[in-house]
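pasting for ref
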Amino acid sequence: MSMLKIENLNVNYGAIHAVRDVSLEINKGEIVTLIGANGAGKSSVIRAIMGLVKSKADQMSYTSPRDGKTVSILGKPAEEHVKIGISLSPEGRRILPHLTVEENLTLGAYTRSDSNGIADDMEYVYTLFPRLKERHRQKGGTLSGGEQQMLAVGRALMSRPDLLMLDEPSLGLAPVLVDEVFGIIREINAQGRTILLVEQNAFAALKAAHRAYVLEVGTVNLSGTGAELLNNPKVRAAYLGG
């Protein structure tokens, strides 16, 4: 089942054409990754999907696994995306440093009113990230970089998304924490969530992904399974150190 389908997406920042006619598809249950160099347009694609930047496209549709309905999400505000089951953990984490861990997580459920379900999901996040439970009364700004990244992912999960989008989840993390974060990404996916991953760590991303797209200067240059692109000579030379 196709959950997200995009045809000919374009994003402009003034005179800069950041994304050019990008088409992609995400099926239910997949981890799909976008890889590419800095400035390739990866974050612009994911922000356009979330409704955080203005974009144009021939199609940007989302099919909810909850009711099977397909709706256009082009031009819709981010809040509407969250309500239908799409959530984003943004680049740079963007947690609120003056609020506690628990308060940050609670904000992730701001579109929900089912208090019992929210409490259940809080415990689910604490099960995924035990360190957050240990620090649930601690201010977000006092956490380490890795803990802040966990908090950002946990906050995105609090809206109970069917499609979870992660923008550079390993950025700035030590290698041991990168492995931990990707292990949790696989676990979240195994529990039934579809994931769109934007990531500069191409090796880790392709190892985790079912399918992948390579962006170069705002356009899709290559696509295939994660395994295919891991073994593609062009990808290896450009992104995997040969």
